[in-house]
């Protein structure tokens, strides 16, 4: 089963931006007045290409066969058994092959989110000392303990590590990684550049 992880905030804001752009493009076409409209369209196109590349496209995808890292202009597929190590700081870094590294764009953890997670972990450790605190059901307590001191990026990093170790225990072959260009993001960028050129050239 496929699981996709991305920045929810960036994803939602990107779609809000697209709705804003759609309305403005319609308005500029209806009230087209030459050069000013072309310049406005070029600016909207350039910003939309940027939003698509850094907010809509990036994702970390789990499949049965391996990990798919979708970055702004590249897609990398790593079979689970090919993953050698996973580290998490601001972003998730996956080591594979001959010391090659894949840096995942999502999910990321900000300093504020990590500080909040650490406070949550400290609070969890102190829970048993105060008799007046309510006792959580066993399932909820297990979930709190699993996430104590961890950000979403930490949790996803753990999942990648566990799947890689499981694949190696099953004796799966560490097939080579597959890298490909993101033709959709490149196409959006080319279209934005074409709009900018048209705004500059057409009088």
From TrEMBL:
Domain (Low molecular weight protein antigen 6 PH): residue spans on this chain: 57-91
TM spans (from-to): 12-32, 38-56, 179-202
Stretch list, region Disordered: 113-137
Segment forming the signal sequence: none
Pfam short name (any one): bPH_6
Domain of life: Bacteria
Keywords: Membrane, Transmembrane, Transmembrane helix
Membrane in keyword set: yes
Protein's recorded name: Low molecular weight protein antigen 6 PH domain-containing protein
């Amino acid at each position: 089963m496929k699981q996709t992880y991305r920045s929810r905030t960036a994803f939602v804001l990107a779609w809000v931006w697209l709705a804003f752009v759609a309305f403005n493009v319609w308005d500029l076409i209806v009230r087209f007045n030459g050069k000013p409209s072309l310049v406005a369209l070029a600016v909207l196109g350039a910003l939309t290409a940027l939003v698509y590349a850094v907010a809509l496209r990036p994702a970390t995808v789990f499949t049965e066969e391996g990990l798919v890292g979708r970055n702004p202009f590249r897609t990398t597929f790593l079979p689970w058994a090919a993953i050698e190590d996973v580290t998490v700081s601001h972003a998730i870094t996956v080591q594979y092959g001959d010391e090659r590294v894949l840096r995942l764009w999502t999910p990321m953890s900000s300093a504020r989110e990590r500080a909040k997670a650490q406070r949550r972990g400290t609070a969890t450790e102190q829970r048993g000392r105060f008799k007046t605190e309510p006792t959580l059901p066993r399932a909820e307590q297990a979930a709190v303990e699993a996430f104590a001191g961890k950000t979403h990026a930490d949790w996803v990093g753990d999942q990648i590590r566990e799947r890689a170790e499981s694949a190696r225990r099953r004796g799966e072959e560490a097939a080579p990684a597959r890298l490909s260009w993101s033709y959709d993001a490149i196409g959006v960028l080319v279209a934005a550049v074409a709009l900018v050129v048209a705004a500059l050239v057409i009088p």
